[in-house]
Amino acid sequence: MRCSDLPKFWEYKHKDANTIMTIDKNCFASDNYAGICPEAWHAMNTANNGYAISYGDDAWTAKACAEIRDLFETDCEVFFVFNGTAANSLALASLCQSYHSIICPESAHVETDECGAAEFFSNGTKLLLVGAENGKVVLDEVEHTVKRRTDIHYPKPKAISLTQSTELGTVYTTAEIAAVGELARKLDLKVHMDGARFANAVAALGVTPKEITWQAGVDVLCFGGTKNGMAVSEAVIFFDRKLAAEFDYRCKQAGQLASKMRFLSAPWIGLLESGAWLKNATHANRAAAVLEKKLSAIPGVKLKFPREANAIFIEMPPEVCEKLRAAGWRFYTFIGAGGARFLCSWRTTDSEIDALVSDITRFSTP
Ligand SMILES: *Cc1c(COP(=O)(O)O)cnc(C)c1O
Question: CA–CA separation, 227 vs 347, rounded Å?
C-alpha cells in the first residue's frame, strides 16, 4: 500500500464548540470500516502470550466455544472462520447436496455479495430467489417456490436463508423468525441465518439470543464478529449438532482453518465476557437512531426503509449526493434496493453524526 492510498482526513468546523475537529469521512460507509474495539484488541493481546496448540485445539478456542454455548443457553457446535462469505457458504453447503436448492430473498447477501460462494462451496446447489418486503422474506413466496414443482427436474428445496438484521437495516421480530421456522419445518427445510449483524438485532429487539435462533427454529447461525468490533472472525454455530458433521474438513479445504486459531477465538471471549458485543451493537443502533432523526428533519431527504438497527438508507436529490461525494464523504448506493446507505458502528461519534448532517443540510439548502 502506498501512502497516497491511506485514508484521507478532512477538517470539520464544529458549530457549537467552534473548534476544529478532524472527521474521517469514511466513517459511515460500512461498519467494517471501523477498526478493532478495545475489548477485542485487549483479548488478542492477552492471547498473544507464549505458545498455544494450533488449528483450534487451544484453550482460548475451547473457552470461546463454551462462552458461546453459555450465551445461547444450549449445547451447540461452534467453529470460527475468517469472514462472513465463508461462514455463510460453508454453513449452507453443510445443509445441502449439490442437487438441492436454497431459498433466499433476492436482496440476500449470499445472492448479491458473495460472488457465488454458496454455489461454489456446495458444488452447485442453486439459490432460488423469492421476494422480500423491507429485506424480509415473503413466506407465501417461499411456500409457492417449494410447492410449484415436486418433480425430479427441479432443484429440490432444502434450506432457507434469512439475514438478521437484514441487508436493508430492518430486523425480523421474534414472531417473524418463528413463523419462518414453522414454515420451514412444514416444508422440510433447514433454516440458515446470516447474522453478520446479529448483535445489532439482539440489541434492537431486547431479546436473548436463543429466542431468535434455535427456539424459533434456526438450525445454523453465522454470528458476525467483524462488524461488531473484531479484526477477523465469524462464528458458525450449529444448533443441530448433526448438521456439523465433518464441518472441520469443509473449513480446512476452503482455506478457512486458521492455524493460529486463538486470534480468531480469543476476541470472542473478550467481547462476551465484558458484554462489549451487546454494548457495541447498542451504541451503533443508538447512533443510527440519532442520525435517522436528524436526517429526517432535512427537507428533500427521505428514509427508504424503517430504521431498526444500525443502517440507514435515504433518498436525496442527485445533486446533494454528488456534492456529498465531492466533499469527501464515502457511502454506497448499490446495496439493497438503492438509495444512499449510512452505517453506524461501535465507534461512531456525535461529531461524526453532526458533520454528516451539517453537510447534507448545507448541500440541500438552495
Ligand atoms: C458483511 C456481511 C457479510 C460478510 O461479508 P464478508 O465480507 O465476507 O465478511 C455477510 N452478510 C451480510 C448481510 C453482511 O452485511
Answer: 11
Who lines ligand 1 at CB under 6 A? 83-85, 88, 109, 163, 167, 194, 196, 226-227
The string of pLDDT tens digits covering residues 19-44 is 556 899 999 999 999 999 999 999 99
Supply the residue whose CA is at minimum distance from atom 1 of ligand 1. 196
Q: What percent of the chain has pLDDT over 90?
A: 92
Residue among 81, 109, 227, 232 whose CB has most ligand 1 atoms within 8 A, to mutate: 109
CATH 3.40.640.10 correct for 38-274: yes
Residue whose CA lies nearest to ligand 1 atom number 3 = 84
Q: What is the whole-number distance in angstroms between the Cα of residue 167 and the centre of ligand 1?
A: 9
Residue nearest to atom 5 of ligand 1 (CA): 84
Residue with the nearest Cα to atom 7 of ligand 1? 84
Q: C-alpha grid cell for residue 100? A: 438441492
User: What pLDDT shows up at residue 337?
Assistant: 57
The minimum-distance atom of ligand 1 relative to the CA of 86 is 8
- Which part of the chain is CATH 3.40.640.10? 38-274
Query: Does residue 53 surpass a pLDDT of 60?
Result: yes
Pick the CATH number of 3-36+276-364 from 3.40.190.170, 3.40.50.2300, 2.60.120.560, 3.90.1150.10: 3.90.1150.10
**pLDDT tens string 320-339:** 999 999 999 999 997 655 58
pLDDT above 90: residue 154: yes
| Cα separation, 310 vs 328, whole angstroms | 22
